[in-house]
């Protein structure tokens, strides 16, 4: 509300100053004063309407966010659980296949794997 008070006080001071220093006739000055006051009142009303619309939009946005975010979160959690459900058996199958492949490798190659079943590449020794 400080802005509106400042706007009205400024308009009032400007009007009084205009009345005191204007080289117009009294009737012209009064007409200008009335028009200026009408303009200020109209501007203030438009600004109040815009702020009211903005507040209503914010409330609507907050309601929409409060409605959509929990639904979105629940859907994402459901998708993650479904992915885990589908991925776990596949991961198990892959681990079994890696173990089977390792068991069929020659002894020197079995020593070239780390704990996760990944092969460790080594540079060959110097060529003879």
Automatic annotation (TrEMBL):
Family matches, as SUPFAM superfamilies: Apolipoprotein (SSF47162)
InterPro entries xref list: Desiccation-related_membrane (IPR052928), YtxH (IPR024623)
One Pfam family, short name: YtxH
Taxonomic superkingdom: Bacteria
Family annotation (PANTHER family): GENERAL STRESS PROTEIN, SLL0268 PROTEIN
Name of the protein in its database record: Gas vesicle protein
Classification of source organism: Bacteria, Bacillati, Bacillota, Bacilli, Lactobacillales
């Amino acid at each position: 509300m400080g802005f509106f008070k400042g706007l009205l006080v400024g308009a009032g001071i400007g009007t009084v100053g205009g009345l005191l220093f204007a080289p117009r006739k009294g009737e012209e000055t009064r007409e200008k004063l009335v028009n200026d006051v009408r303009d200020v009142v109209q501007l203030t009303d438009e600004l109040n309407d815009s702020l009211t619309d903005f507040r209503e939009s914010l409330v609507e946005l907050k309601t929409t966010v409060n409605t959509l975010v929990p639904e979105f979160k629940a859907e994402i959690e459901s998708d993650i659980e479904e992915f885990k459900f589908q991925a776990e058996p596949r991961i198990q199958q892959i681990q079994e296949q890696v173990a089977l492949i390792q068991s069929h490798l020659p002894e020197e190659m079995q020593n070239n794997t780390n704990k996760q079943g990944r092969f460790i590449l080594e540079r060959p020794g110097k060529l003879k």
